[in-house]
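Progress note, project year one: complex with iron/sulfur cluster.
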Amino acid sequence: MAEKLGVYICAGCDIGKSLNVDELVDYAKKSKLASITPVVKHSAVLCSPEGKAEIEADIAANGLDGVVLCACSPRVKWDIFQFGAVQVERVNLREQCVWSYKEDPKVPNQMPLIAKDYIRMGMMKLSKSRVPAPEMPETFQTILVLGGGFTGLNAALEAAKIGKDVVLVEKAPALGGKAATMYKSFPLSAPFTKAEDTGIAGLIDAVNANPKIKVFTSAELVSLEGAPGLYTATVNAGGEQKLEIGAMVLATGWVPGDKTFLAPMGYGSIKNVVTASEFEAMVKAGEIKRPSDGQAPGVVAFLTDVSLCVQGAHAGSAEVCAPIDPLPEAAPAGEPEVVAYPSKESAKHLAYSSEITSLVALKQAGYVREKLAGSMAFVLYDHMMVPGINERYYKTAQDDAGIMLSKATITSVKQDADGGVLIGAKDTLLGADVELKADLVVLPTAVVPVTAFEPTLNLVYRQGPGFPDLEMFDGFADSNYICFPYETRRTGVYAAGCVRQPMTMATAREDAAGAVLKAVQCISSANRGVAVHPRSGDMSFPVFNFQRCTQCKRCTEECPFGALDDDEKGTPKPNPTRCRRCGTCMGACPERVISFDNYNVDQIGSTIKEVYVPDDMVAGGPRVIVLCCENDAYPALDMAGFRGKSWSPFVRFIPVRCLGSVNAIWVADAISKGVDGVIMLGCKYGPDYQCHFVKGSELCSRRKTNIAESLGRLGVEAERVEQYEVSIDEYDKVPGIIDRFMTEVITKFGPNPFKGY
Ligand code: SF4
Ligand code: SF4
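Model obtained:
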C-alpha cells in the first residue's frame, strides 16, 4: 500500500482560473487520509520542469511512496510524471471537471464539489495500491513457425535475421505451400506494374541454408504445452521430439473454398468453366488449354462475381439476385478434390469478396496475354478492388488493348453448341446488355483459412486445443483487425498471412515480419514480467487468495485468453505469461478471491465510496457513477472534454481496465450507498466486437442481467444500471449518452430508494 502520499494540485490549463486551488489544498490537508499525506501543495504548472523538480524534491525529503497529481488526464504527460518506484495517481481535473463542466441552474456551483470528490477518490485509490512484484521467468528464445509456405518461410528468415533460433514445421513433404503451385505473384516490387516470379525457390533455399532455422517437413505439431516464453512443443516428424519454444507464428495459410457454390455460374456442368486455382495450375504446368478439347482458347473471360442475377435489374436497394445453392453432387467427375467443410454451418457461402479476387483476375488475364499470342481476356467485375499501390497494376491491365475490363452483372452462363461459353451480362460500362462468347471462363477461388478445417492447434489449454469462436470469423484466426493485427486469443501465438485474412504475397511478407516482431516482443515481455498489448509494460498479474476459492470455475471459463488452467478440483492454476491483465477474472469472481496489487475489488470499491452523495437529490443533485473502460471510453471522454463538450455535473468517472473487470459488488456498493445510477461505458460487443480484451464488454452485459435481477429483488429499478457502447472516435456521442441517462432514467425514476440509509 502507498503509505506516504503527496498531493499536488495544478493551477495551469484553466484549472487555477476555474477553481480555488488554495481551498482545494486546505481541503486535501483535512481529508481522512491526512495522517499519511505529509505533502499537499499547488503548483502554477505541474508539468513544468520546476513543477516536476518540486515533486522530486518532496519525494526525497519526505520519503513519499505515492503522489496524487490533480491536473490533466493520465493519457497525457505520462512521460513527464514518472518517479521511479513511486506510485502515481492522476486525478483528471482538467478534462473531467474544468473543461467539461456544465452548470445546472437548479443546483449551481458544482465544480468545486466535483474537484473535491475526485481528489478524495484519487487519494483513496492510491492508498490502496501496491507496486506490483512481477514474475520474471527465464524464457526460451526459439520461435516456432507453423507452416512452410510463403508466409512461414518469410517469418522464419525474419526471425533468424534478428538472431532467433527457429523451428519450422510443415506438414507437407516439401516447403513452399501454395506459392510453389503458382506461376507468378501480383507485383511484389516497384514499379508494381507487372506480375512477378513468387521467389519461392529462393526462399526455400535461403531457409534450408540458414543454420538458425531447423526445418521439419512431413511433420505435425502434436502439442504446444505451457505458456509464452515457456512452451514445450512436441513435434512428430517420423518420431516425436520435444522442443523448448518461446512463441509461435501461425502461418498455416489457406485452402481453396468449396467449389460447389460456383454451380450457378456453370461450374461442374460446363466443362470450360474452371476456377482460378485450376487455371493457375494449368499455367504453371505450361499450357492454357480448354478442358473440353485441349485447344488453346482465343477468348478467356474472368468473372469476379459468383452470384448470378436471374430476375432482372437490381431495383433500388432491393436485392433480387438468386441465392446460391450448392451442387447436389460434391464435384464433377474427374475434377480435382472438392474440399469438404467440417460442418454445415461453416459450409455456408462467404457473403463477401476481397481484393484478391480482383487481383487474381488481373494477373491471370495477363497470363492469357503472355502465353497466347493474339488472344483476348475479358474481366467482368462487380467491384474492382485494387487498394493502394496495386492501382498501378490495374492501370497496366487497362492500358493493354488485349484486356477488356468492364463492370458487369452476370445474368447467365450457358454452354454453346461448339464448346464455347455464352455469358449474359447487364449494367456494363457499355450501358447495354451484352452476350459475350468465351472459349474458357475462369471463376474466383475462395480463400478459406486452414483453421476453418483444422481448428485444433493442439494447444494444451484447459479452454481447448484451438482458438475459440473461429466460426464467427469464417475460420480466420481472430486478430482484432484494427488494433492488434497479429494477435490471437492465445498470448504467444501470432497469426500471419492468409490464415489471418485473404492477402497478397506482398502483404503476407510484411505480415510475416510483423508477427515475428510480436513473437519476439512477447518472449521479451514474458522474461521481464510485463504484459504484452494492450497493457504493454504492465507488471501486475492476478493474485489468488485460494483459501476463499469455491472452485466455481467462473474465472477459468471467462478468461478470454485461456490464461487460467485448473486442477482436478477446479482450483484455478494461473499462467502469468499468458495473462493480459484485463481483470476479467476479477470481475467474474463472486468470492472476490482475485486481485491485482494496483487494481483490486477493495480499491475500486473504496474509491466509489468516496463519491459524496447528497441525501436530498433535489437540493444537492443526483449522483451517477460511470465505470469507464480505459481503452476507448476514457479517451473518448478526454477528447470530448478537450473539444469543449460538457455534460451533467452529477456524474463521476472511474476508469476500469476493461468492463470485463467490473465486479458486481462495485455496482451493489454504489447503489446501496445511495448513488442514483451506474453507467458502464465500454467498447462494442457482439460479432464485430471492439473490446480490447475480446469479450470483456460482452461478459459485462451478461453480468448486468444478473445485477438487474438482484436490483429488482431489492426494489430498485433495473434501469438505474446501464451499459453503453462507445468507441474512441465517438467522443461527440458521450455527452448525449450521459445527459440522456440523466433525463430518461434519473429524472424519470427519481432518487435511489436507498438514499440516506
Ligand atoms: S481474465 Fe484477464 S487478467 Fe484474468 S487471467 Fe485472464 S487474461 Fe489475466
Ligand atoms: S471465480 Fe473465484 S471462486 Fe470461482 S474458481 Fe475462480 S477464483 Fe475460485
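The first strand starts at residue 5 and ends at 10.
The pocket of iron/sulfur cluster (ligand 2) is lined by residues 544, 549-555, 572, 588-589, 591, 593-594 (CB under 6 Å).
No further modelling is planned for this target in the current period.
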